[in-house]
Design goal:
The chain is built from seven helices and eight strands; from the N terminus they run H-E-H-E-E-E-E-H-E-E-E-H-H-H-H. By secondary structure, the chain is α+β, with helices and mostly antiparallel strands. About 6% of the residues have low confidence.
């Protein structure tokens, strides 16, 4: 479902949205602002959404440099519950850094350490009734195609996408059991890997804090070499 359709049809009150915006704007503390950033800010403003980013350094560190392109967005009545927003210094497999924040729930003192990446999987498709699912889709698929081809405006298409999405959810619920994630023990994770990760994170912090340009270059070289070993 397109995000605009979701916002206008569902009208969520308690929404937290983490996204790789791939654009730049001073609103999320990027040193530069581009056209795509201005467009996104206009979109967020028109739908009553606020950014929760704090001034805590770049969220992306890749071969081409650093950038401020990952943002956390929330509805107006929910944004105040996002506290201590920060960019983690922990090394990951991605060039995008982990985004962490505390979420105040129901006005209590309970805080959750949240990462802007959660599973969207809803159904256990590996054990579902695929034959029934395929039959249902074949029965209605031609009708959907005709309706899509007959749309004459963006508004009609958005409305149709929402209807198709709702019908897909109904069909999926009939054909597949609900997915229940389980905690899995990772056998390949060893004390050696844990120690290596700590070394990589320590070097990353050292590079970030180093003021001497020569020393920073040497440390950064060591960091990249050790990071490559850790990823392999």
């Amino acid at each position: 479902m397109p995000i605009k359709t979701f916002l206008t049809s569902v009208k969520p009150l308690n929404l937290v949205w983490g996204l790789d915006a791939n654009c730049k704007h001073s609103t999320w503390y990027s040193p530069v602002t581009d056209t795509r950033g201005r467009t996104l800010v206009d979109f967020l403003t028109s739908h009553g959404l606020l950014t929760a980013n704090e001034k805590d350094g770049p969220s992306y560190s890749g071969p081409t440099g650093v950038s401020w392109i990952d943002i956390t967005v929330a509805t107006i009545n929910f944004a105040h519950k996002i506290q201590n927003w920060r960019v983690s210094e922990e090394c990951t497999e991605s060039d995008h850094n982990l985004i962490l924040f505390n979420l105040s729930i129901h006005g209590t003192n309970r805080n959750l350490n949240v990462i802007d990446s959660v599973s969207t999987r809803k159904y256990a498709t590996q054990v579902g009734n695929w034959n029934r699912f395929n039959q249902k889709i074949q029965q209605i698929g031609k009708q959907w195609t005709e309706l899509v081809n007959s749309t004459t405006s963006k508004e009609q298409l958005d409305k149709l996408v929402t209807e198709i999405w709702d019908k897909l959810k109904q069909i999926s619920k009939m054909c597949f059991p609900t997915f229940k994630p389980k905690t899995i023990f990772v056998q390949w994770w060893t004390p050696k890997l844990n120690a290596l990760r700590k070394q990589v994170n320590a070097l990353k912090r050292r590079v970030k804090r180093c003021k001497n340009s020569d020393l920073k270059e040497i440390t950064n070289t060591r960091f990249k070499a050790l990071k490559h070993i850790y990823r392999v």
